[in-house]
Amino acid sequence: MSSILFAATTTTTKPQPIWNGVYFNLSTIIPWYVVLIFTVLYFGLLAWAWRPREGRPFGSFKTIDFVYIALMAALTIVYNFFISPLIPKVGSVTTYFYYPLIGEIFLIGLAAALVGKPGAAGLAMFIYTLLSDIIHYGFGGEPFWFIYEMTAYGALIDLWLIYRGEAFFTPYLKPPRALATDGGEAEGESEEEARPPRSSWIIFADGALSGAWMSLAYPFWWRGFWGTFVTGYKTTVQFWAVTSAAALGAGIVMGIIVAPLIYYIKQVAT
Amino acid sequence: MSELGAILYNPAVNWTIALVYLLWGPALVIYLIFKLIGFRGYMSLFRYAGGSTFLYRLDPRVKILLSIVVTTVAAMTVWWISAIIFIAVMALYAFTTNVGEKMRIVVPLVLASFIGTAWAQSIIAPYSYLVYDFGQVHFIYAFPQALSALGLTQANETAYVPFLGYVENPVGLTWEGIIYGLQITFRAVAAIASGLLLIFTTQPSDILTALEKSGLPIELGFTLLLAVSSVPKVLEASMTTLNALKARGVDLRPRGGTPFAAIASIGSSIKYVLLALVTIVVLTVKDAGQIAIAAEVRGFRASRHRTYYRDIKMGRADYIALGLLLALLALGIYLSGVPGFGAIPYNP
Fold first, then answer.
1. Which residues from B are below 8 Å from A20, CB to CB?
2. What keywords does the record list, in alphabetical order (chain B) (predicted)?
């Protein structure tokens, strides 16, 4: 028995973590420079979205936006750590269709919908990761898990928010124009004219895009790069490709399911 | 094959044992742990109760560093060093107030990590990893060969299985997989214990002040702190909603005498769970406006330079703790390079 228990002490010839539990293993399926370029571009977008105004960082964000993000991060913590573990998981199904992710798609999508500004999804993921590091995971592997969570879950949603803005998860194709706030009418046009074109399918497009992107995070980005880079995880290209393709479809389905719920809550809350 | 072997490896029994082990193992464990802690237990996790020992007086920045150093050293060294660190962190809980109440939270969480990881690794740890790490692999029970498609542990040679004899490429539960799962769990539990120690012994406002003094923008600190303090509110909203559903006669557990009734019952359970989720989110979000107004009337973001009613300063005890932590980090980095002291490969 003792030979079994202490056998692990003889494994020093295998790759070891170099710093803070990170292997820095670059034998990844997705080439490192692709991830680097993508990360730099996304953080460039965040730098623009969070640029200071009047000396204050996150210039375009209002106080209520931070409140929404905090509440959604708290809900995501409760969902991921207390509710999701109670959902029975069948390995043969969850490998290809990770249905518990529906809660996270719903909550991060809702955070982005309530705030309606580029950078909202990234900020929500940053707060969620920081909180989960403090209460559960510890800081091993950081700062790379921050980069992974923000890019893999938030990037495309934030990019889509540049186009959709406050109209995200509403049936309007464009955000409504600002109307006069002094009780009068906006210059030269009635409220009817200021209302942008309406199309219900766009809510489902918002949901499908958010769901597809978030569903790809683990099979595509984690298995393809971050898992290998940080923890030394290895997999085959075939498994990575098949699970990524399956997750794409699964994410679209889950996103379409949660889209009307997000729209409903956005209507109630704002 | 012995008589017991004939029973254990009867195809019907074999499939039943395999499926029960696969499907219900972790769900059952987590359900039991959830029962032990309960919603109220989780809520106390996010509520600070004061104390007077040195742990409560330490600068929050030192306690945040403790969490980082413990996680780092545990990740880069062999499992028994992580175990020693974990025991040392658990010993620090003796200096918290109401130790019994805290153990009621920490112990089930730690146990859940151990049982969950050992369960998972006992059937999914790659055979080649186990052979490399332990030299030889002992099967406890073999599952039907068809389950190899799920990526379970499968020998790439003939191996001995108790009560069954020598089998070609058996798939199933291994003793070394369990040991491996327990070993890698020490990394996680050391991190969990140190993170909870920070939460239990530090006022949320002090964590915010410490983060701001470490250069974190006030907006991020505010959002983080609001998220922490909102978790009990979310749990309370969950309890209220679920109790309201129960009071109206809703049963969330799917039941049914026939397969059709069971499917209908699952459908209605999903409907009620969705309704409950929407209600919980609406209950949580509806106060957002008031929280934002309350923050703004207190001058949130009014000025870049804040003053503090209760400032935090590093004292002698903080510097001693800081020195000890840096020494532990240096020792961990050194040991990680010494043959036999480095971390075992991690199979997530």
1. 71-72, 75-76
2. Membrane, Transmembrane
The string of pLDDT tens digits covering residues A145-185 is 999 999 999 999 999 998 888 889 888 877 766 544 444 55
Put simply, the answer to whether A78 touches B149 (Cβ < 8 Å) is: no
Tokens read off for B45: 């996790």
Among chain B residues, CA nearest to A8 = B133
- B41 contact residues in A (CB cutoff 8 A): none
CB contact (8 A) between residue B199 and residue A114: no
Residue in B31, B195, B341 nearest the CB of A136: B195
Within 8 A of B22 by CB-CB distance, chain A residues are 90-91
- Record: contact B304-A232, CB cut-off 8 A: no
What does the H/E/C string look like for chain B? CCHHHHHHCCHHHHHHHHHHHHHHHHHHHHHHHHHHHHHHHHHHHCCCCCCCCHHHHCCHHHHHHHHHHHHHHHHHECHHHHHHHHHHHHHHHHHCCCHHHHHHHHHHHHHHHHHHHHHHHHHHCCHHHHHHHHCCCCEEEEECHHHHHHCCCECCCEEEECCCEEEECCEEEEHHHHHHHHHHHHHHHHHHHHHHHHHHHCCHHHHHHHHHHCCCCHHHHHHHHHHHHHHHHHHHHHHHHHHHHHHCCCCCCCCCCCHHHHHHHHHHHHHHHHHHHHHHHHHHHCCHHHHHHHHHHCCCCCCCCCCCCCCCCCCHHHHHHHHHHHHHHHHHHHHHCCCCCECCCCCC
Interface of B with A in 115-144 (CB under 8 A): 132-135, 138
Q: Given A3, A8, A74, which is nearest B183 (Cβ)?
A: A8
Residue B16, token pair as written in the block: 């039943």
Q: What is the pLDDT of residues A8-67, one digit of tens each?
A: 333 334 556 666 667 888 889 999 999 999 999 999 998 888 888 877 788 788 899 999
